[in-house]
Amino acid sequence: MSGNLTIVPQDYVPITPSDTAQVKFRGIYVGGTAGNVAVQMNGGATRTIPVIANQELRGQISKVLATGTTATTLFGLV
Known about the structure:
Elements: E1 12-14, E2 25-30, E3 35-41, E4 46-51, E5 55-65, E6 74-77
Antiparallel strand pairs: 1-6, 2-5, 2-6, 3-4, 3-5
């Protein structure tokens, strides 16, 4: 794994999940309802992660997928 994921984010960017839009996030904050967050990691792996409200996920994320994402009010950590 490259990069330091323990660094405090510089900003929280609102996320609109998309199956095509490329992003560059260090993680995701779930500010709304619990559900699933479907992501594509920088290495290309696709994961669907169950989350609760007010949870923060860390990782090198290249897409937040609309297909499979049911959690709401998501923010990207940059």
